[in-house]
UniProtKB/TrEMBL annotation:
<keyword id="KW-0143">Chaperone</keyword>
<comment type="similarity">
    <text>Belongs to the complex I LYR family. MZM1 subfamily.</text>
</comment>
<keyword id="KW-0809">Transit peptide</keyword>
<dbReference type="InterPro" id="IPR050435">
    <property type="entry name" value="MZM1/LYRM7"/>
</dbReference>
<comment type="function">
    <text>Assembly factor required for Rieske Fe-S protein RIP1 incorporation into the cytochrome b-c1 (CIII) complex. Functions as a chaperone, binding to this subunit within the mitochondrial matrix and stabilizing it prior to its translocation and insertion into the late CIII dimeric intermediate within the mitochondrial inner membrane. Modulates the mitochondrial matrix zinc pool.</text>
</comment>
<dbReference type="GO" id="GO:0044183">
    <property type="term" value="F:protein folding chaperone"/>
</dbReference>
<protein>
    <recommendedName>
        <fullName>Mitochondrial zinc maintenance protein 1, mitochondrial</fullName>
    </recommendedName>
</protein>
<comment type="subunit">
    <text>Interacts with RIP1.</text>
</comment>
<feature type="region of interest" description="Disordered">
    <location>
        <begin position="97"/>
        <end position="138"/>
    </location>
</feature>
<dbReference type="GO" id="GO:0005759">
    <property type="term" value="C:mitochondrial matrix"/>
</dbReference>
<dbReference type="Pfam" id="PF13233">
    <property type="entry name" value="Complex1_LYR_2"/>
</dbReference>
<dbReference type="InterPro" id="IPR045298">
    <property type="entry name" value="Complex1_LYR_LYRM7"/>
</dbReference>
<dbReference type="GO" id="GO:0034551">
    <property type="term" value="P:mitochondrial respiratory chain complex III assembly"/>
</dbReference>
<keyword id="KW-0496">Mitochondrion</keyword>
<feature type="compositionally biased region" description="Basic and acidic residues">
    <location>
        <begin position="97"/>
        <end position="112"/>
    </location>
</feature>
């Protein structure tokens, strides 16, 4: 049962991450429309890999520790796909990309960067450009 939940979760996460509508879809009016948006080859490859991984573990005993580890791994991958994968498409004639950020995309507040100052470890490039560090080395 937990494996089925993990399987559905990771397949949905792949659709969210790669904008999951590929090929012809039937709209509410009953007409078929082409919704080949997103990254269809990547989505299809991800779905194929997910199926292969789950099938390779299908014959395992549910009490086997590798089963629970595999389920946990699938859940973590699903979370990563939903929160950390963002698609970008280059805008025609511009040096800009339009990002597809969705409701599940993790958005940081950058507080850790703001509070650390310059953000460079050791006070500068290679840790030696800080005046205090030079004095300490002499």
């Amino acid at each position: 049962m937990a494996a089925a939940v993990a399987y559905r979760n990771i397949m949905r996460a792949a659709r969210v991450a790669f904008e999951g509508m590929t090929g012809l879809q039937i709209c509410e009016a009953g007409q078929s429309t082409d919704h080949s948006t997103g990254d269809a080859p990547t989505l299809l490859a991800a779905q194929s890999r997910i199926r292969d991984e789950f099938r390779s573990k299908q014959a395992l005993d549910p009490k086997d520790s590798t089963v629970s580890e595999g389920i946990e791994h699938a859940m973590q991958v699903a979370q990563f796909l939903r929160q950390n994968v963002v698609q970008g498409k280059k805008m025609e004639g511009e040096e800009k990309y339009k990002l597809r950020i969705h409701k599940d995309t993790e958005r940081g507040d950058n507080e850790s960067i703001k509070s650390s100052g310059s953000g460079v470890a050791g006070g500068g490039c290679c840790g030696g450009s800080n005046k205090r560090d030079k004095v300490a080395l002499v």
